[in-house]
Write a structure and sequence with these properties.
By secondary structure, the chain is an alpha/beta fold. Helices cover about 45% and strands about 10% of the residues. The strands form 3 sheets. The protein has a 7-stranded parallel sheet with strand order 3-4-2-5-10-1-11, sandwiched between helices. Strands 14-15-13-16-17-12-18 form a 7-stranded parallel sheet, sandwiched between helices.
Length: about 675
């Protein structure tokens, strides 16, 4: 149901906000068991409708339980000729595609072509699948079996989306051999272009009324990182950016530049396979590609062991660092020179030479001692790039050289100002102390920057509180003494407090840590303190998806995890009734990006702690606390093991940014609440 004018019809506008839709006896109530009318949901839907009609920009915080997805889908589906919805993860994409959009469409009585568009690494690449099958060089029976499963899947699948093929680990080495990247895709020169799943998905997106993407794909395409496709995402009258609290970080990640040792290994592997197929005997391809792989392995050995981040100066001071970079460049030069005379043998040889040049250019830009690599970006190739900081990410077996923008605000607001369409930015966590000031600053959302010609201010803010009864159904424990993060035994104290609460908790428990280092110490101590009937699951011991499945299957499980478990994890009811947070989630001050952003603020006369560290911690804390209540009937205890929360003025600001938990001071009070509240809950129907 679209409208040629792009303006809402009066009957649609009325229905979008009416009791007939949202009320206790309305269309959604008829379609959904247990539907509850939420004034905040209708207020958000009204604000979205106004933004669409006025081509405005809406910045909205909708507390947990508001029902924000339906609130933005209803007016968008009714009013927008074409709608793009971008969310944080592929899992949320799948939920929108399989559940939320079909529900809204059914209730509204509209028929809309909906496409879920993902990054190319999610789709089988027919060309690379065939080549991997022909090479026969897989090194384990398990990988060979996985290859057979992928081949059977690709032969019958309509879309080639590997999420529909269960049982293959996300870390499987096979995935890189049967999918494509921007680097190795042959584009129009691919012999299997006609059957390309990626191109099919893009064609379908261009013909759809509703396109569901994720933030990574959204920004990757804005940065023109995908074969120079200027408009992969179709034009739209409405763009909804859900989970908008992640936009600034994801945007900085994709609008900068990155070169990793994994890319070099992939280049060497692809070059060897291509050359043996098309130019066998012309050069010593095994020696050339082995030299490239050795160069990047030697570079990794220059860096410290363990995962960490180093700034540009720290990286340059590593023993042997500059010599190893020179070896990398030399190996690229040698491989490129060998490929030059055989370039005409295959389009892949041409692409391999381009990849050699791209890696050389990236190495040279990252090493430049004076100017930042993105200081003078090409307007066409880096439309959103700004001042960047260079840094080194070290992993267990790899490293990456990165140049990341310090901020995307001016460029992001310029994007919104250039596109005369409605933009809806919504999340459960966008404010600190009720103010959008920090979110607006990070995204450059200021009235003068967003104005369209011949129009007034476009930006509107809306804050809708959660409908959940936090005072009655929750308790917040903040110890008044002890529990200072500087204590070397802090992790053990956290485990001991958590064990006391878990003993009284009839449901599942999360222990969320701010560092990976704390996970092992806390998990080991919990296992020593808890009976075997309370299994302790530990991040890094298994894949995240497997851990979450095990947690969901055991109502008494305890999961100890760090960053990836603070948000996007949803366990309603007694699946999760206790969340313990080890300390306030401040970003490490020695992190290269954090340090550079704080330096820039302080150079402008501002306070880095107040203007960056504190708001960042507030939003992260809200996300972690948000794991506890996911429905009206949920209840539980949140324990934050950091006495600074109640003992400092800035800590009390963080406290005020949380939902209105009822606060308790002792473990005994929190334990009593868990036990008594559980006993009073009626059994679910």
């Amino acid at each position: 149901m679209g409208h040629d004018t792009g303006q809402p019809a009066e009957d649609d506008a009325g229905f979008a906000l009416s009791d007939a839709l949202w009320g206790a006896d309305g269309a959604f109530a008829a379609a959904l068991d247990g539907w509850r009318e939420r004034p905040g949901q209708r207020a958000l839907a009204s604000a979205v409708a106004q933004a669409i009609a006025a081509r405005g920009v809406l910045l909205a915080e909708a507390g947990t339980g508001t029902g924000k997805t339906l609130a933005y889908l209803v007016p968008a589906l009714l009013y927008g000729e074409r709608v793009i919805v971008s969310t944080a993860t592929r899992a949320l994409q799948d939920q929108l595609y399989a559940k939320d959009v079909p529900l809204a469409s059914k209730v509204l009585g509209v028929q809309l072509r909906t496409v879920r568009l993902k990054g190319r690494a999610n789709y089988v690449c027919t060309y690379r699948l065939k080549r991997t099958q022909a090479e026969g060089m897989l090194d384990s029976r398990r990988t060979v079996a996985e290859l057979r499963r992928v081949a059977r899947f690709a032969a019958v699948s309509d879309d080639g989306d590997l999420s529909a093929l269960p049982g293959i680990d996300e870390q499987s080495p096979l995935l890189g051999l049967v999918t494509s990247t921007r680097d190795n895709c042959l584009g129009a020169d691919c012999p299997d272009l006609r059957g390309c799943f990626v191109m099919k998905a893009r064609r379908e997106a261009l013909a759809a009324e509703v396109v569901i993407v994720n933030h990574h794909l959204f920004f990757a395409n804005l940065a023109l990182r995908d074969e120079g496709v200027a408009e992969l995402l179709p034009s739209a009258s409405t763009v909804v950016l859900d989970e908008a609290h992640q936009l600034a970080d994801v945007g900085a990640q994709f609008l900068g530049s990155a070169l990793g040792t994994a890319q070099a290994h992939e280049l060497a592997r692809d070059a060897l396979a291509c050359a043996l197929q098309h130019a066998r005997g012309v050069a010593d391809w095994a020696q050339l590609t082995a030299a490239l792989q050795k160069a990047v392995r030697d570079l990794r050995l220059c860096a410290p062991q363990g995962a960490q981040r180093l700034d540009w100066e720290q990286a340059g001071a590593l023993p042997g660092w500059n010599d190893a970079l020179a070896q990398w460049r030399g190996a690229l030069d040698a491989l490129d020179a060998a490929l030059q005379p055989v370039e005409a043998a295959s389009p892949e040889c041409t692409r391999l030479r381009a990849r050699c040049a791209e890696q050389r250019d990236a190495l040279q830009a990252w090493q430049q001692p004076a100017a930042q690599p993105d200081a003078q970006p090409d307007a066409q190739q880096r439309p959103l790039a700004v001042e960047a900081v260079r840094w080194l990410e070290v992993g267990p077996h790899h490293l990456r050289l990165l140049a990341t923008p310090l901020g995307i605000g001016p460029a992001f607001s310029a994007l919104l100002a250039q596109r005369p369409q409605a933009w809806v930015l919504v999340s459960a966590t966008l404010t600190m102390g009720g103010s959008f000031r920090w979110a607006r600053a990070r995204l450059g959302l200021h009235d003068d920057a967003l104005a369209l010609p011949d129009s007034g201010p476009r930006l509107r803010e809306l804050r809708v509180p959660s409908p959940f009864d936090y005072p009655q159904r929750t308790r917040l424990l903040v110890p008044r003494s002890g529990f200072h993060p500087s204590d070397p035994e802090h992790a053990l104290h956290v485990a001991e407090l958590a064990a006391q609460l878990v003993a009284a908790n009839p449901g599942g428990s999360f222990v969320l840590t701010t560092t990976l280092r704390a996970i092992g110490r806390i998990a080991a101590r919990l296992r020593a303190l808890l009976p075997e009937s309370r299994p302790v699951l530990e991040q890094s011991s298994e894949a995240k998806a497997v851990l979450l499945q095990r947690f969901a299957a055991d109502p008494r499980a305890v999961l100890v995890g760090s960053h990836s478990f603070w948000e996007g994890v949803d366990f309603p009811g007694e699946q999760l009734t206790l969340v313990v947070i080890d300390k306030l989630p401040f970003a490490p001050p020695d992190d290269p990006l954090v340090a550079a952003r704080i330096r820039r603020l302080e150079a402008a006369g501002r306070n880095g702690f107040i203007d960056y560290s504190l708001p960042q911690a507030a939003l992260a804390l809200q996300q972690g606390a948000g794991r506890l209540l996911r429905s009206e009937r949920d209840w539980g205890v949140l324990a934050i093991c950091d006495r600074r929360l109640g003992a400092t003025a800035w800590g009390r600001k963080l406290l005020a940014s949380l939902q209105p938990f009822t606060r308790v001071d002792s473990v005994d009070e929190a334990s009593a609440f868990l036990a008594s509240h559980a006993a009073s809950e009626p059994d679910p129907d």
